[in-house]
Amino acid sequence: MKILVVGSGGREHAISRKLLESPKTEQVYVVPGNDGMVQKGIALQDIPETDHEAIIQFATEKAVDFAIVGPEVPLLNGLVDDLEAAGIPAFGPTKQAALIEGSKDFAKQFMKKYQIPTADSETFTDYEAAKAYLDEKKAPIVIKADGLAAGKGVTVAMTMEEATLALKEMMLEAKFGEASEKVVIEEFLAGEEFSLMAFVNGTEVYPMEVAQDHKRAYDGDKGPNTGGMGAYSPVPHLAKEVVDEAIEKILIPASSGLVSEGRSFRGILYAGLIHTEAGPKVIEFNARFGDPETQVVLPRLESDLVEIIWSLLHDQKPEVHFKQGGIELGVVLASAGYPDHYEKGAKLTGLEHISSDVNIYHAGTKLDSDGDFVSNGGRVLLIGLQAESMVAARQKIYQEMKKLENPAFFYRIDIGLKAE
Ligand code: AMP
Ligand code: GLY
User: Is the CB–ligand 2 distance for residue 89 below 6 Å?
Assistant: First the structure.
């Protein structure tokens, strides 16, 4: 088969590699992709993920068998709808179904209606009303921009000063543009966070193994929120009962609820969860594979990803099994200064010394005129490997990360530490 992958990050690199493992795959095309993805069987085409017409034209020319849309922006722009309308089978939710990620207010109302456990919240479009609610509820409290903000639209405020500042920036100064015209103010929840993704087709739910992301920029979960600085899967200190409860009370009712709302979902439903004293609760839904979770979950998938997606596209039941035992760990190398201001174009040193038995997933890299990789984004790449235990995984991965050390970059040294 010929398969089109839309997106350019580490997630799309991991998806493309997994597709290539299938004996059914002849060629993967990635639009726009990044230079680090290119290998035998994976080719790039430089089309922006927002140019639906050019993507459809390319997919038609290459006669692709199906497409997978990775990132949230093209999903919410309706790329899956447009591909399908052009006769190209596309794996990913329609624009209507992707709203579960695209609007926090929609997601909160939806969860309320279908009794899916989540933090109590209210939505506001008026600053004075929001401020009055904040004064009543008090810190700690969480302020969220309603729309997409590249993972940066959430402030977990431990003090009233932080909460008020976040509210002002979002509602009065349009920090996230239209995305923060509406703001959700939410109860602060304490507990262990985990990510649970599932292949979904309407009411059918096929869960993957759980993973844990590390969202803050610096060690000890300090610093600003990022797209994710590292991850591992499975999460050994999370009881199976908690995961089962999350599937029963969250993923299944959410998928059925979306069908009832006329927004039937086909694609990857991602639940960002927190294990509270009252059980797992939803922090957010995403309408796609998580990044960097995908880079540690897909390597453990033993079933054929092409067969899974092909089955779901044909309303058949897929086989979904994961490797038992061991652990997959991934650490992100980021540009110094990320998630705030950072420079691009720094040479990546030491890549040639990385052991051949680890996975390198490129995210923000490109080849310069000398044929060397240079940075081209905040998250540059992720090194991933599997080991029998977290202790062994951490030892090995940090030996590898040392080879990439360079003042232009940084990484967290405590990824997976909690699971040792
Ligand atoms: P999000 O962008 O929705 O994933 O939120 C980013 C991060 O903020 C999450 O990974 C959590 O660590 C934190 N967060 C979001 N909502 C809450 C909440 N209600 N209580 C505590 N922490 C939260
Ligand atoms: N790792 C979180 C996300 O993909 O949104």
Answer: no
